[in-house]
Amino acid sequence: MEVNSIRSSFWSFLYDIRFIILFYVIGDWASTFYALPFGAEYNPVPAMILENYGIYHLLLIKVAFIMLLFYVAPIIKTSTGRWNLTKHIIESVGILVTINNLMVVWYGVSLIETVGLV
After folding, report:
1. 5: confidence class by pLDDT, cuts 50, 70, 90
2. Which is deepest, 6, 9, 27, 118, by most CB within 10 Å?
3. 3-state secondary structure string, 68-112?
C-alpha cells in the first residue's frame, strides 16, 4: 500500500515540476549538447563535469538534482509560496540558460555575455 502511495506521489511530483524537467533538464542539456561546438561552457561546475566526465554525466547530475528535489520537496512545501517560488526560480534559470545556448548556436553570441554577466 505504501509503495503505491510513494509511486503516485512521485508521478504527481513529476507533473508538478514538468516545466523544470522541460527547461532545466531537457532544454538546458540538449541545447548545451548542440552549443558546445560553437562556444565554451562558462559555468565552472558544468565545465568541470563536461571536461572530466562528458555530456551524459551532466544529464545524470540533472536527474540526480530532480531526485534530490523530490526528497526535499515535502519540507519546502510546508509553505505554498515557498514551493512556488522555488519552482519558478529553477524554471527561470532553465529558460535563461536554454535561450542562452540557443543564441550561441543560432547567432554565435551569448545572451549572458551580451548582458555583461561574464
Report:
1. low
2. 27
3. HHHHHHHHHCCCHHHHHHHHHHHHHHHHHHHHHHHHHHHHCCCHH
Give, in degrees to the nearest 5, the angle at Cα 115 between 111 and 118. Answer: 85
d(CA 64, CA 66): 5
Q: Give 4's pLDDT tier (boundaries 50, 70, 90).
A: low
pLDDT at 2 over 80: no
Domain boundaries defined on the chain: 2-115
pTM, two decimals, is 0.85
C-alpha dist (Å) from residue 87 to 6, 81, 106 = 21, 10, 28
